[in-house]
């Protein structure tokens, strides 16, 4: 492209696993993209704050610290189309005329949407170096927006899926209890025969115990951790975010265990805890005579 050409357009597209209405619900609110995109330090609509055609929004980029003002030129809810123009940049970029941006959503089946993003930039005078720099920044910005949209909707779908599954499980438990289906039955798994008659281990849980308040609390805690890690590491995939949580949890648990064991290793309670943990017996029998200990166990040491 010749240097005398003052106008250049950068376009990019991305297919997100979400229906068009969900994606549009994020984009159509012109002054609140900072609620789902971590690339903004803040964003607000100036003046009376009304999100209408002609509204001017201001936001600050976290990466560059630059403050932008943009004016909403067109919004078509039926076509999922958005257009806005740059009004000002602080600090200003010498030689930059104006920037026009358009976003168009296209349905790709019931649960997929193509996002078409386009920036058209006009310079005040020919400057290939400035044009190339602006184009590179715009490409990075578009990719960041795509990742933010996919990440936000991915978390929303995960939360919805987990809570729907949890609700279905609770409903089934309620039905089982109402119909008396194994509500008081416990299943057991025995130790290997060579260990003799030891207390039985729990093999499974009855419906009344399948989702205890503690279990539900752990599930909610896990979801919250996912949300926080996604906010802190927006560029990470969901699988990587879960690995990050696991690493943090393991580090915290190890640190706690090390400190706890240093302070409690000599206590009888801790000795019994380490001897019995993981077995989950239904009862503990006090042994008053050596002969009560199964022969196979008499040489075991804790």
Q: SS-based structural class?
A: alpha+beta
CATH architecture of the largest domain, by name, is 2-Layer Sandwich
Morphology: elongated
Low-pLDDT runs:
278-282
Distance between the termini: 78 Å
- Average pLDDT over all residues: 78
Percentage beta strand: 15-25%
Total number of β-strand segments? 9
Topology-level CATH name of the largest domain: Alpha-D-Glucose-1,6-Bisphosphate, Chain A, domain 4
Helical amount among residues, as a percent range?
A: 25-40%
What does this structure look like?
The protein has 302 residues and is α+β, with helices and mostly antiparallel strands. It has 2 domains: 7-155, 2-Layer Sandwich (Alpha-D-Glucose-1,6-Bisphosphate, Chain A, domain 4); 175-297, no CATH class. Helices cover 40% and strands 24% of the residues. It has 6 helices and 9 strands; from the N terminus they run βαββββββαββαααα. The chain has helices at 20-27, 128-179, 207-210, 213-232, 238-264, 268-276; strands at 7-16, 40-45, 56-61, 67-76, 81-90, 96-107, 113-123, 187-189, 201-204. The protein has a 7-stranded antiparallel beta sheet with strand order 1-7-6-5-4-3-2. Strands 8-9 form a two-stranded antiparallel ribbon. The longest helix has 52 residues, at 128-179.
Task: Explain briefly what this protein structure is.
With 302 residues, this protein is an alpha+beta fold.
Provide keyphrases for this structure:
302 residues; alpha+beta; Alpha-D-Glucose-1,6-Bisphosphate, Chain A, domain 4; seven-stranded antiparallel sheet
